[in-house]
Amino acid sequence: MLTQLSLRHLTLLGTSLLGSTFVLMTAESRAATTQPAPAHSAPATHKHSRPAPALVKAKPARTPKHETEVSGGTEALVVTGTREFGKKARDSIAPVDIVTNRQLTGTGQPTLRDSLALLLPSLTVPTGGFDAGALTDSISLRGLNPNETLVLVDGKRRHTTANIYADGGPAQGSTPVDIDMIPMAMIDHIEVLRDGASAQYGSDAIAGVVNIILKKQNHGLTMRSNTGITSEGDGFQQGVFIDGGLNLNNRGFVHIGGDFVHQDHTFRSGNDNRTNTDVNQLLGQPEQTRESVAINAGYDITDDIQAYAGATYAHRHAESYQNYRLPSSLSKYPGYAAIYPYGYSPIEALEEDDYELTAGLKGTLAGWHWDVSSVFGRDYDAVNAESTTNVGLYTATGETPTSFAAQAYNNTQWTNSVDLSRKFRTSFWPYAINVAGGASYRYEAYAIGTGSPASYTYSSSDAFPGTNPANAGKWSRDVAAGYLDISTNLMKHWQVDLAGRVEHYTDVGNTKTGKISTRYDFSPRFAIRGTFSNGFHAPTLAQEHYSALSVSPTAASGIIAANSPGALANGASALKSESSTSAEGGIIVEPVKKLHVTVDVYQIDLRNRIMPGGSIYGSQAHSALEMDGFNLPPGSGSWTGSQLATHWFANVANTRTQGLDLSATYPTDFGRYGHADWDVAINLNRTRLRHQASSSTGAPLLTAQSIAYITTAYPRSKIIFGGTWRSAANKWAVSVHEIRYGETTSQLTYYTGPYSFSSSHYREFPNLPKWTTNASVTYNITPKWSATIGGNNIFAKFPSVVPEGNRYLGVPKYYMSTSQLGMNGGYYYLDVSARF
């Protein structure tokens, strides 16, 4: 509780919150859509940089008097990771990427996640996804699990999805923030802090922080249509994006916007070796339709007090195919053999409702900046099994539904915060000292709902069994936190930031984190910076309590809760928080005029990583699943250890992640022939296993396959480079960028031969580096209308093909459990936008 947060704890020091930039969006940054340059760290917004030409002269929204006024649409102020007001981006003490709305729309992608993946080398997304995990859009920073990246909206912690990624892969166990549930039309810009920030924001900020800044303009109307299709002629996508602002008596604003996005299913499966046809549609992009809206508002009650409020809501329907069932599987059930005369492919269908409400007051009093806020968010997922059967129920009763309400999940987060900051000048110190502090209380709840009786009784709904009452329930916890932040200069050109934080979780106890950052400017064209910090990720309530079973035609695997009877009987123990120690150093340099370069190296030691461990097989797994109330398919009692397995989440390993980020920009002026901006951005990244835990019997908790998920499933490198040319009159823009995805290495299960379904013998499979090309041409039809035609991965490169013997039923010809190149191939689009 808050009363437990002593001043002694609050004085635990680390660094101050780090820099990211706030770009006041004028028409300069909302102009015609073009294929954008990759986002770069804050110092790229240098005083010598040339701003993009504007199509429409726009009046900035009124800024409350207690906030810092900024002139110029490209001037940048630090708002993420710092408690100082008016901190300029060029003085950033940590690596920050700034992604404007113009850059997002310029990718031609209708989803935020896929747009960011084309712009940020340090950010990756899954190649594909299994089961319900394919229905949530996750992001990862610096080759770590999505749970290690904290997502904020306007500086406030965003609630996470209720849909846990439960299947094998580097994202296994994650319940990330699904950023695509926030309307892209409402996003002003995004600030990505590539540094550990737990001392500033608490749990999850180990790899970095993504802060999504919503639009606040009190004027204007923007409309955009995006239409695209893949190089294979499927995966049709349509997006419609609308937003606009209103002036509230010249004392405030209301900005409202929304998205409609539809994506068709893509089909990338190999031939099913049971039929030697392509009837099995397992591999591919899920179909989804998403509607989302948001409102953001602020009003100056007095010259020193502003009220603000906001809300987002999104609904998504999505469908993912499961493995095809042969007609012979229904030979004993003539009534249903008639319904599915050619067999059937079960479908997982998601109905998701996601919303968040924010309200607060902020202002100044006696020189102090204060902010009091409350944020309530919830994500509800109903997952249904469709086009399937429960043959055990049919045997017992003579009938079975073909559609089942199988599973339901609910995640709730309510955060209340008080933040204070003030800049002091004293007679004993020649430089200003900025002091900030605050406290927060957060309530978290997670619930698993019971499926319909037909979905979990007898042999359960085929492919996607429903949740039985023994594994349903509701769990909650309280989190209280306090922090202290101090920043100043030790010398004129030497900055130092320190921060400390203490948190109390009612289920996993106390944590203390700190950080120290420093920067020294040798000249206006050369500076060095560095940070050292520790951080943590508290186990999510889903990781502590989730359980489920996935059933294929000849095999099944399950996850049982670490505190369930089946897990406890096999040596499971309560989850502990992950903890990290991070160090980073970098340089900011302008070796020649207008060439801006930043280089940062980093090391993240992560302890007690949470992943599935303690795997058990065959009859032992069968017994544990029955103890937890699962109904298994007929005949599964005789399945071998290669066919039936289960596990639970555990603290399985310690790892070390090392890497390098580089970015560079250079403008070229061709006079009456236009202007070009050149850019390059690189991420090099490697994770090594330092230690793995053992079970109560002394057996390692990780297999070679799960070690590969941790260490080599993310690309060793990602390079983005190219340029954008604009005509002198800004009528035309042409952009070309190359992306090189580095190699990933996986340990593949054998499905044929002597090592079939082995849990100890795997095939090492290198997914070789891939080059892709993104290009676009934009024509500004009028000052208000523009059109872009372009493509991503225009030469349709695909991941490396998996050997036949390592494809279950011969179907997954690309390996989904990596985060390298996507499997859809090329994507070509037409984008039309209007601004009024």
UniProtKB/TrEMBL annotation:
<dbReference type="Pfam" id="PF07715">
    <property type="entry name" value="Plug"/>
</dbReference>
<keyword id="KW-0472">Membrane</keyword>
<keyword id="KW-0798">TonB box</keyword>
<feature type="region of interest" description="Disordered">
    <location>
        <begin position="33"/>
        <end position="72"/>
    </location>
</feature>
<dbReference type="Pfam" id="PF00593">
    <property type="entry name" value="TonB_dep_Rec_b-barrel"/>
</dbReference>
<feature type="domain" description="TonB-dependent receptor plug">
    <location>
        <begin position="89"/>
        <end position="209"/>
    </location>
</feature>
<keyword id="KW-1134">Transmembrane beta strand</keyword>
<protein>
    <submittedName>
        <fullName>TonB-dependent receptor</fullName>
    </submittedName>
</protein>
<dbReference type="InterPro" id="IPR036942">
    <property type="entry name" value="Beta-barrel_TonB_sf"/>
</dbReference>
<dbReference type="InterPro" id="IPR000531">
    <property type="entry name" value="Beta-barrel_TonB"/>
</dbReference>
<keyword id="KW-0998">Cell outer membrane</keyword>
<dbReference type="InterPro" id="IPR039426">
    <property type="entry name" value="TonB-dep_rcpt-like"/>
</dbReference>
<dbReference type="InterPro" id="IPR012910">
    <property type="entry name" value="Plug_dom"/>
</dbReference>
<keyword id="KW-0675">Receptor</keyword>
<feature type="domain" description="TonB-dependent receptor-like beta-barrel">
    <location>
        <begin position="335"/>
        <end position="794"/>
    </location>
</feature>
<keyword id="KW-0812">Transmembrane</keyword>
<dbReference type="InterPro" id="IPR037066">
    <property type="entry name" value="Plug_dom_sf"/>
</dbReference>
<comment type="similarity">
    <text>Belongs to the TonB-dependent receptor family.</text>
</comment>
<keyword id="KW-0813">Transport</keyword>
